[in-house]
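Deliverable D5.2: sample structural annotation.
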Amino acid sequence: MRLSFAGILLALAALAGCQRADRPPAGFTAIAIESGPAVINPLLSTDAAAAKVEGLIFNGLLKRDDDFSLKPDLAEKWDYQTPLKLRITLRRNVKFHDGSPFTSADVKAAFDFILNEKNSSPLRGSFSEISSVDTLDDFTLMLTLKRQSAPLLGNLTFGVPKAGTANSGAPMGTGPFILKESVQDEKLVLVRNDLYFEGAPKLAGVIVKIIPDETVRVLSLESGAVSAIMNPITPDILPRFQKNAKLNVATTQSVSYSYLGFNMEDHLTGNIAVRRAIAYGIDRESIINFILKGMAIPATGPLPPGSEFYSGAVAQYPYDPEKAMRILDEAGFEDPDGPGPQLRFTLRYSTSQNELRRRIAEVMKWQLEKIGVGLDVRSYEWGAFYADIRKGAFQLFSLTWVGVGDPDILHYMFHSSSMPPDGANRGRYRNQELDGLLERGRVAEGTERKTAYNAAQKIIAVDLPYVSLWHPLNVAVTASSLKGFKLGPDENIKSLKTAFMEN
């Protein structure tokens, strides 16, 4: 982590402000995250910050363990009556944060909201196979499908709000913590839910501080203003933490995926030759070794190598600047002065203000200049950056997907029906053959499903709507006084429901 003198002064000033502010009350802990949620509503949100916070406020019908196996959550059990009828039996001892009972009517209301096109829920595409949702009694539902849906159970992990609150601006949950206060881009205050069906948390509450500047996050941790920071953390700073007896550093495998995304409707990035040249022109191994300090593994696609649906038998793009230049020459993008300083063209590269992402962007800029491609690196405040990505106001951007589990996420990323706001096909990528494979993957089982996703991964690797970069490791640094906290493989912070502060 590199600090300028001005940066240090700004960080110290911000930290002084933090120190003057009230410390967390007794029994509370404070954590720092880089950006705040765009919206706290599990039926509408799409960003990783929202997922972190919502995991403490809401429960899904099902949940995933750290090994990504499905377990009961609000649903006590489920069984297929026929291949097209799924019966779900709910827990009977669950209450919302206001003390009202959780019933099948709340689940039906959530599905009605999701499936109503007017609400533009990003979950709608995940449940397109549902024909009807019927309440059989207060604690039993029947989902009737148009056709079989292999990913259906895995998609039932979304948080279920109380009926009638999804459009209220403050959806109510059943989770271990209650959202008491939310100050945009500053903090969220969560307090213990004493009615939680799995037992009240040990912590009296959690204060989530939104601190975009990594230096301030680091100093806040070291000063005791917060008890935990987590991804993204610049690897250069980890030895400093490891030497501090008051801090614990934990690194674990993740199911995250970092990539470069292209605007497929742009006259330059929509050209396959440009995308292929960029893929060959980026030296991922050097970035992993020297910038990330080995804390990532190269990616060949969105699915992690540990997935049963992962296929490494796809087109790959080892660093080859000579090949990249030939591709551009043959496509008519000739270099005006050969090895000279003039560029073939310049692309606008959008990224957040995160220090690590900016450093990576500058390295990529230097690497791509060698093949005659310029990058105009523009870093934005997170909210503005993410809004531009959703609108398609970019040429090239970098982001990280978290929680890449079931391969149906490829439908959410790349199906032509999954354009924002109804999905996350941010680059406006369209391929009819891929659409068919992703649809087949939803209804197929066993070997047939795996075959469909193997073929889908091959198409994605050839078409390059994304340049795959790496699967980063998860990193969390905590105060030694915070016990029982661990970052989930999908970066969730649900362990806070059983964590506690030791005096």
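Annotation notes: The domain at 5-51+176-251+474-501 is CATH 3.40.190.10 (D-Maltodextrin-Binding Protein; domain 2). Confidence is low (pLDDT under 50) at residues 1-21.
The annotation will be released with the project's public dataset once the embargo ends.
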